[in-house]
Specification:
417 residues, alpha+beta, Outer membrane efflux proteins (OEP), 2 domains, 4-stranded antiparallel β-sheet, two-stranded parallel sheet, 8 helices, 6 strands
């Protein structure tokens, strides 16, 4: 009883150590790492910061603009009063100067600044959504690479099993050679086949390592050699492709631009003021430097622009139509991809059903061939051929299984999930 308790305790401790050492990665966890760590994802934060700065700049239109100005001029001639009068009317100096602070304050801009803020926010939303679209393309790369790793992982297990079968068979062949039942060439053949499997294992492992390195780049995380990739069964779900939101935002931006453009020729009202020192100041007949100030209102109204605004509006409407065409084209492409992937899923499900039957038959054939080899009724070459056909059938099934999982996950990507 005590020995049983020790055995159970040792087994549980070993299981805990194995669980701690082994890291399991799913496709979802790879997606999350990519979205969190990929450099492109950081652009969304920077875009938000740039938008806040741009909006603050637009809002400053209602703050007074202050400027310090100076004019220094020499005139070849100045105004003189040549009418004979009883008093002397002084003439201004040929050299005149003025230094002043000028202030300008927008009072009414016909709502242009509000429209500019709306347009700026729409532009930022488009940039952010475009980043999400670009990340979605990276997501497709993660998907492809993940299932490539899964295939290498599953293929490695098959090759190891075949190698173990060959090593076990080698012992029986070595005994038969020793007893004179088989010739030494049979032993050479099985050794050559074991070396061939080891070559395939090296190629398989190299491919897996290269794919893992690429996954590290895509997810910006370090992946341990002990990491296992979990190809769990996918449930097909509908979502929202980021491209559709991008199309909507592009149209919304053009609508904002149209609205802003319609206000460009409205009158804008300003308040202004000057305070400074000049010679002459406001009295043109003074030849002495004086302080002065003035305040007033002004407006600007571009009431005629030779249909420039109308043409710009027409251009924006054409661009809206272009967005509609792009969206329609995207719908067609998505529909084609969906139907193609859906048919591929149906095909792979049928192939897998046949794979199961083929493997069952191939295993029976290999088992019979193994017995015949032991009895000396077939050659080692014939046995290895049957064993390789069994391996090929199992590899094809694993390939179809991985392809089916990938097709289902790709269908989710196509649907925006």
């Amino acid at each position: 009883m005590k020995n049983i308790q020790i055995f159970i305790l040792t087994f549980l401790m070993g299981s805990q150590i194995f669980a701690q050492d082994t890291i399991v990665l799913t496709l979802d966890s790879c997606y999350k790492s990519m979205y969190q760590n990929y450099p492109l994802a950081k652009q969304q934060v920077l875009q938000a910061e740039a938008n806040e700065l741009a909006v603050n700049n637009i809002k400053k239109i209602y703050l007074p603009k202050l400027s310090l100005r100076g004019d220094f001029m020499y005139y070849s001639d100045v105004t003189h009063v040549d009418i004979p009068v009883a008093i002397e009317i002084p003439s201004p100096s040929n050299f005149q100067y003025k230094v002043y602070i000028e202030a300008q304050q927008v009072i009414y801009d016909a709502g242009v600044s509000k429209k500019q803020i709306s347009l700026q926010k729409n532009s930022t939303n488009i940039d952010t959504k475009q980043t999400q679209v670009d990340l979605y393309r990276i997501k497709e790369q993660v998907n492809h690479n993940f299932f490539l790793i899964i295939f290498f992982q599953e293929n490695n297990e098959l090759l190891e099993n075949i190698k173990a079968t060959l090593i076990s068979k080698r012992k029986a062949v070595a005994s038969a050679v020793k007893n004179g039942v088989l010739t030494p060439s049979n032993l050479d053949q099985i050794d050559a086949e074991i070396l061939k499997i080891e070559q395939q294992l090296i190629e398989n492992q190299t491919g897996k390592i290269a794919s893992i390195r690429l996954m590290e780049i895509l997810t910006c995380t370090e992946i341990s050699k002990k990491t296992q990739f979990d190809p769990f069964e996918w449930v097909i779900q509908e979502g929202n492709r980021p491209e559709y939101a991008l199309f909507d935002l592009q149209k919304k931006k053009l609508e904002s631009a149209l609205s802003l453009n319609s206000l460009k020729n409205w009158p804008i009202l300003y308040a202004f003021g000057q305070a400074g020192y000049g010679n002459p100041a406001l009295n043109m007949f003074s030849d002495e430097g004086e302080f002065y100030y003035l305040v007033g209102l002004s407006f600007r109204w571009n009431f005629w622009d030779w249909k420039k605004t109308s043409n710009e509006n027409q251009i924006m409407k054409v661009r809206q139509s272009m967005v509609d065409v792009s969206k329609e084209s995207f719908d067609k492409n998505i529909d084609v991809q969906y139907k193609k992937t859906e048919e591929q899923i149906k095909k792979l499900e049928l192939l897998l059903a046949k794979d199961t039957e083929i493997i069952k038959l191939r295993m029976n054939i290999t088992r019979v061939s193994s017995s015949k080899l032991d009895n000396g009724t077939i050659t080692m070459t014939e046995y290895i051929n049957e064993l390789n056909k069994e391996l090929e059938a199992k590899i094809m099934k694993k390939l179809h299984e991985v392809q089916l999982l990938q097709a289902k996950s790709m269908l989710n990507l196509i649907l925006g999930k």
